[in-house]
């Protein structure tokens, strides 16, 4: 008598997990940073030309901030389907939303062509970008850690995190090449569109990789045990409200640091060294020069992200992040004495490399920590909301607040103090939280399953 061979659920090869989580978020962050760079370099003149220089920059930053308010909405929408129907389909959908919105921005007519309709369309597409990114990150993080080997979740969780520096390098590297290879007039006329249009090719690559995935064994087992809930959002707020709040504030300093080190420093670094009407004093670099220095700093971001995963697996997420957050608080106090007082490119590069190294160290462990705070059946929703509400508190207003705190004579001490304050709030959240390194993700679903 023969017996049927036991069947097992298909498992994603580790190489495919790494590539899918890395490639997808690289594309998503590429799309996002293309907009961030354009918001500094060209959008004030192209979409808000009737305003003063400062007002146009503030309007451009306001559309930049729109995506951050869209991201929690995206996290609720995509989180619901990620917990209800699976990670794979949701990741594909979020990539499409983000990619299509970015491509259409590259096709937009400017204010000179259609008037006030142009900034309105820009705002709508920017909002759509935020919806897509709101569902992207947590799905990629879950893909990585739910397929990770034992005691290597934090390392695997850094692969989607690496999408941030890689996407930044791709986006700003392309802007830099265009700035150096065509005239400023050509760049303003059509060159700025190229990075947005190129995103279509990158989306095709991302879709190919993600469509070959299968659901993670942890998610599949949760469904087989009947732990799926009808309303993940309601379940998260009812049973997991405390980790939701803590996770949001744990992300706060990370977001403030990153957008100060990229969007604000680019604005400050390229502002003139002497006062001009409507323009505050800065370091006086040309845009290509400062983008080159910024790309050096982001390389350190990429280097220290996986290092942070190794540290978090060895010493624990909480302990690692407490030390790093204290370092961020101290770094914020050096803005005026270091960055504003920089007299040469080496000092600027060192400042950027230091800040973005800290960014890699604080961002790296988040790919494991935030998902580990929540049970399997609401993990997508919970981690997405914490991550993206943190973006509202930490990143959406960071460039605008920095611009307001930056005085006309070039003083940016209060800008750095703002970062220090954010780091203190994050430190409090970390001290109130528990270590998640030893949590069993397979059995971390019982609480949510008690919900109706």
The secondary structure category is mainly alpha
β-strand amount? under 5%
Order of helices and strands: HHHHHHHHHHHHHHHHHHHHHH
CATH class descriptor name: Mainly Alpha
Mean pLDDT: 86
CATH architecture: Up-down Bundle
CATH third-level topology: Growth Hormone, Chain: A
Task: Give the full name of the CATH homologous superfamily.
Answer: MFS general substrate transporter like domains
Q: Rg, please?
A: 22 Å
Number of helices: 22
**Low-pLDDT windows of residues:** 1-8, 446-452
Q: Would you report the number of β strands?
A: 0
Span of the ends, CA to CA = 45 Å
Shape: globular
Largest sheet: none
What percentage of residues falls in helices of 4 or more residues? over 70%
Q: How many domains comprise the coordinates? A: 1
Which terms summarize this structure?
452 residues; mainly alpha; disordered C terminus
Gist?
This protein has 452 residues and is mostly helical. The chain has helices spanning 14-41, 43-47, 53-84, 87-105, 111-114, 117-145, 153-181, 184-189, 194-210, 217-224, 232-239, 241-250, 252-270, 287-315, 317-332, 335-340, 345-363, 366-372, 379-396, 398-405, 413-432, 446-449.
SSE order and pairing:
Elements: H1 14-41, H2 43-47, H3 53-84, H4 87-105, H5 111-114, H6 117-145, H7 153-181, H8 184-189, H9 194-210, H10 217-224, H11 232-239, H12 241-250, H13 252-270, H14 287-315, H15 317-332, H16 335-340, H17 345-363, H18 366-372, H19 379-396, H20 398-405, H21 413-432, H22 446-449
Helix pairs in contact: 1-3, 1-4, 1-6, 1-7, 1-9, 3-4, 3-6, 3-19, 4-6, 4-9, 6-7, 6-19, 7-14, 7-18, 12-19, 12-21, 13-14, 13-17, 13-19, 13-20, 13-21, 14-15, 14-17, 15-17, 15-21, 20-21
Family: Belongs to the major facilitator superfamily. Metabolite:H+ Symporter (MHS) family (TC 2.A.1.6) family.
Pfam families: MFS_1
Keywords: Cell inner membrane, Cell membrane, Membrane, Symport, Transmembrane, Transmembrane helix, Transport
């Amino acid at each position: 008598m023969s017996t049927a061979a036991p069947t097992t659920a298909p498992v994603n090869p580790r190489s495919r997990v790494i590539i899918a989580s890395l490639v997808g978020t690289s594309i998503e962050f590429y799309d996002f940073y293309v907009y961030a760079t354009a918001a500094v370099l060209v959008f004030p003149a192209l979409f808000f030309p009737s305003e003063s220089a400062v007002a146009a920059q503030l309007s451009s930053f306001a559309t930049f901030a729109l995506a951050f308010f869209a991201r929690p909405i995206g996290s609720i929408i995509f989180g619901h389907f990620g917990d209800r129907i699976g990670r794979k389909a949701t990741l594909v959908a979020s990539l499409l939303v983000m990619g299509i919105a970015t491509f259409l921005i590259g096709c937009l007519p400017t204010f000179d062509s259609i008037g006030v309709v142009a900034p309105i369309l820009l705002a709508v597409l920017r909002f759509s970008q935020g919806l897509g990114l709101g569902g992207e990150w947590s799905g990629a993080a879950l893909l990585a850690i739910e397929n990770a080997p034992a005691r290597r979740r934090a390392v695997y969780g850094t692969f989607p995190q690496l999408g941030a520096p890689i996407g930044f390098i791709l986006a700003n590297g392309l802007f830099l090449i265009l700035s150096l290879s065509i005239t400023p007039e050509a760049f303003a006329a059509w060159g700025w569109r190229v990075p947005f249009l190129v995103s279509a090719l990158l989306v095709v690559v991302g879709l190919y990789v993600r469509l070959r995935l299968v659901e993670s064994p942890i998610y599949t087992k949760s469904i087989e045990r009947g732990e799926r809930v009808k309303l993940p959002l309601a379940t998260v707020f009812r049973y997991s409200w405390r980790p939701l709040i803590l996770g949001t504030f744990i992300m706060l300093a990370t977001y403030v640091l990153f957008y100060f080190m990229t969007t604000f420093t680019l604005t400050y670094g390229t502002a003139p060294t002497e006062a001009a009407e409507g323009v505050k004093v800065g370091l006086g670099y040309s845009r290509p020069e400062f983008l080159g220095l910024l790309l050096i700093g982001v390389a350190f971001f990429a280097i220290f992200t996986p290092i942070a995963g190794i540290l978090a697996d060895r010493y624990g997420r909480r302990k690692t992040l407490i030390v790093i957050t204290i370092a961020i608080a101290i770094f914020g106090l050096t803005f005026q004495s270091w960055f504003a007082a920089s007299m040469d490119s080496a000092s600027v590069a060192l400042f950027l490399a230091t800040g973005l190294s800290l960014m890699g160290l604080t961002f790296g462990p988040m790919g494991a920590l935030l998902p580990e705070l929540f049970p399997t059946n609401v993990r997508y929703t919970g981690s997405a909301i914490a991550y993206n509400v943190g973006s509202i508190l930490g990143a959406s207003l960071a460039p605008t607040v920095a611009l307001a705190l930056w005085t006309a004579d070039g003083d940016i001490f209060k800008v750095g103090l703002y970062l220090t304050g954010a780091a203190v709030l994050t430190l409090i959240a970390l001290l109130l939280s528990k270590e998640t390194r030893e949590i069993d993700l397979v059995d971390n679903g019982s609480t949510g399953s008690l919900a109706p």
